[in-house]
Predict the structure of Acetyl-CoA:oxalate CoA-transferase.
Amino acid sequence: MTVSRLPLDGIRVIDFSRVLAGPLCSALLADLGADVIKVEPPGGDDYRSIGPFANGESGLFSAMNRNKRSIVIDLKTADGQTLAQSLCANADVVVENFRPGVANRLGIGYQTLSARHPALVYASVSGFGQTGPESYRPAYDIILQAMCGLMDATGAPDGEPTLVGDSVSDVVSGIFASWGVLAALIARDRTGKGTHVDVSMFDATLNLTAALVARYAATGVAQQRVGNRHPTSAPFGAYRAADGHFVVAVLNNKLFAQFADTIGHRALVDDPRFATDTSRCAHESALRACIEQWAATRSVADVNATLSAAGIPVAPIQSVRQALDSEQARARGLLVETTAADGSTARLPTQPLKFSAYPDMRTTRAPQLGEHTRTVLEHVLGLDAVAIETLASTGVVHEAEAVDAALSRHTVTHQEMNDA
């Protein structure tokens, strides 16, 4: 693997995870220069078979497994478990996202690996963590959004609880897992000891809803759905213009006065209903009527230009396509063109951090299944050709050529994605 000058150069990660949360964690580490070796079963990570597809490859798998190497080991064999244990003995970090107990059955549990390698940092990402009455319950993003209050707090006041439009529970769990790994690596440098990082998607999702949790902790009252507005401030939300919607965010009296002047309603400032942020929130419907009356004859672009010129925080509501195709996204390099396995051009997301002391983070294509099996066995574990051929002939490991047919036959069901 090409050596790069990045913050995590020299850190090796063995990644047993699949689908989204665990792979995102290791992808973030790989972006920063870590050598991530993805250990897959003979059928491959479930995400390889989940669309959308581009040039025959899953876009979701490609995004979550950028910058990694792939080795196929059958962990349901004794020799496969021994091989995996040897890989972990030479690693800094292990990431897995099986349900609690499964990693132990596969011979790669924390107790087993840390007994041989006490300095190992081991991250487990699961739906409800390693402890608690729900710990063995399978979880998808929608389950966590439902159970953590996120859906209950999202949507119109008189409407149904609403799913947030992306797999935010998976994503935030992957981010917290990478953060936990980095903290554990810093501590290891001081103490020489590794640790088990237990990441619960339930815990992570509740931490994602920091304001909801803070309000409940302070008042004992759970926030109710308020639609496209702020629960405690106004004007702070989405409003209708002639050709669409825009959002504004006004949090203090000085800004409110400036906003009222800009929309031609200076009298709002002297109206006792709108004297404070709290009172404005209580009379949000009356305030909304004034704003939408002003905006009714204006386009979103005109509203955005007028309020921006006055220093009011305002924005059009964009699609993901508009956001990623914007000049701002291009300037920040949020999508990078890479060369796919078939030689075509593919776009992959990059992590969002910029470091003044380092060049741009690397972004290389996701590996094909088993693409690096021989390389890893030879150069990481020091096995010779005879030993590798023996492992391959007995089905303990698979190389890219040998797994193509198996992958084409592999059909993923929701049950498979929960079972080990």
The two ends are 30 Å apart (CA to CA). Residues 12-209+328-418 form a domain with the Rossmann fold fold (CATH 3.40.50.10540).
